[in-house]
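Anyone up for a design puzzle?
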């Protein structure tokens, strides 16, 4: 099975002070997709620079030609389907059809309260995502949409001419619970996981692989319930949140071993963080670039599709 290698570039640098060059370099290195986080602020970066995902991706689209672009992930925490759809259609047009929307329920971090609301419970986040994704699907595929739901409404929302990608740009749905996996099965062109967060602190890489294998099996069950073959669905692993942490980026051999084990679970895309010195994503940039340039061939991967 071929394996794609992608990266995620956090939007913490001014565009003309390193931001621009990272996206250009990602294309030069042959990454399949370069994603960014769609947050208002995030973890240890909260008191430093942090830029918006959609403007960043729009700028990246204007300086690249082949690189796919996307979010990992967008959530309902501060987004509304109607306004998001308009931005995504515009971004898909500017990029010439190179956009993937990573989407998930979001968490209880800074985004959850930035608009002045109380943070939603896990059930409330799941409820909102269950309404958000189908409505966004309609908004990206229909010229005019009206809808009245428990959490979101649309009144004759127009989205002409629609996406460059047909019938719409692809969704990569991040999920591990039953309801999220059903959404991924029904609406996702891809599924995203970061592994089992309960294993991050004290688990082992072997336990992580077993946990992720279980997630893959549950996804297959969710697909089977609606008559879909999960084998034809892209499966994306966002690295850095398993017990391995940054160890796979310590050497080319370490990464090939890590990626190979997850390819064998059925993953079609591995995403690695662009190195950020002095953070949890610190890594040797020379090793990172060696992985980008040499690992795909060793894994039988395809850089572009």
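Challenge accepted. My sequence:
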């Amino acid at each position: 099975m071929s394996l794609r290698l992608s990266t995620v570039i956090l939007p913490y640098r001014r565009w003309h002070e390193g931001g621009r060059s990272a996206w250009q370099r990602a294309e030069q290195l042959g990454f399949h997709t370069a994603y960014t986080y769609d947050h208002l602020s995030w973890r240890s970066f909260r008191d430093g620079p942090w830029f918006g995902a959609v403007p960043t991706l729009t700028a990246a689209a204007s300086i690249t030609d082949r690189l796919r672009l996307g979010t990992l992930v967008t959530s309902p925490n501060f987004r509304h389907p109607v306004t998001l759809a308009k931005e995504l259609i515009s971004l898909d047009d500017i990029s010439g059809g190179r956009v993937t929307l990573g989407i998930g329920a979001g968490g209880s971090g800074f985004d959850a309260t930035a608009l002045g609301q109380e943070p939603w419970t896990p059930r409330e986040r799941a409820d909102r995502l269950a309404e958000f994704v189908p409505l966004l699907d309609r908004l990206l595929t229909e010229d005019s949409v009206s809808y009245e739901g428990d959490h979101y409404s649309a009144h004759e929302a127009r989205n002409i001419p629609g996406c460059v990608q047909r019938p719409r740009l692809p969704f990569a749905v991040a999920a591990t619970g039953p309801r999220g996996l059903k959404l991924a099965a029904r609406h996702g062109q891809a599924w995203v996981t970061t592994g089992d967060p309960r294993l991050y602190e004290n688990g082992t890489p072997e336990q992580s692989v077993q946990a992720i294998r279980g997630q893959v099996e549950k996804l297959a069950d969710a697909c089977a319930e609606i008559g879909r073959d999960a084998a034809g669905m892209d499966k994306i692993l966002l690295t850095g949140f398993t017990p391995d942490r940054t160890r796979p980026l310590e050497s080319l051999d370490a990464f090939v071993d890590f990626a190979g084990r997850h390819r064998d679970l059925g993953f079609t895309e591995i995403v690695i963080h662009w190195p950020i010195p002095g953070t949890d994503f610190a890594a040797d940039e020379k090793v990172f670039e060696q992985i980008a340039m040499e690992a795909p061939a060793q894994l039988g991967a395809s850089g572009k599709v």
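A detail worth pointing out: The beta strands are 4-8, 33-36, 68-74, 99-103, 144-148, 153-158, 171-174, 190-193, 234-238, 269-273.
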